[in-house]
Task: structure prediction
Amino acid sequence: MKLKGLVERLWALHRTLVSDGTDEALRIIGESMPEASGYEVETYPPGGSVWTWKTPERYVVHEAYLEIEGGERIVDFNDNPLHLVSYSPPVDRSLTWEELAPHLHHSPERPGAIPWVFKYYDRDWGFCLPKERFDALPRDAVYRAVIRSEFLDGPKDGLTVGIGTVHPEGGPAEENPLLLICAHVCHPRQANDDAAGVAVAVEVARRLAVRRLPAGSMSVRFLFCPETIGSICYLSHHEDLIPRFQGGIFCEMLGNRNSLVLQRTRQDEHLLDRAA
Result:
């Protein structure tokens, strides 16, 4: 699959921290990774302690919409998952404008765009819409907000992470140092943040599988996960690997036409700084 085709398939999914869309994204990534990477998906149960964090529940949205009571529908999750504040709890209420307005989100800088807002850890409900639409809404109407969602915490409802490793010539060795390449999968309907980074990481894996690094080089491990909490889940369950990691590259926003930007390491003279 070509890189833009992979981005297109990932873009359409409702990908959040833990969701069916994220699971599907990891399955699609697995189809695209080279067989030599030994790609697999690990699951971490909801509510489990991962260092100082907790693994979040699975978020399921059955329907979500905002309408003028008895009339026009304003936004609908089925049209675009960005319309719903991610991890919004269930709601079915009639509201005045004054009651509704604090739950509406828009972007003054991009009045035609739907912003992305999430409430993973500070839970509250809300809807997102273009500022142009927000400004046009009647202030004297009664609105109905409906969110039919649920949070699942069964053992099969856990956070998932995709992992693949491409070894140098000669194959794996217990003492092989590791380089980590990571891209996140959890931002719905956003091509550059970070479906583009996922596609680039997949292509790096493909090229390394065809043209292996020389014997004695680092093995390159690829991690596809929800941002922040995904890598925390993975590393907290694989603490034995941490001393072997020689560095990590986080691929993000690689699909635009701007110049590439390097975030230097804390050491400032690390191998990654010199190579970049």
Observations:
- The first strand starts at residue 40 and ends at 44.
- The chain is about 25% helix and 25% strand.
- The chain has a mean pLDDT of 95.
- Residues 191-210 form the longest helix (20 residues).
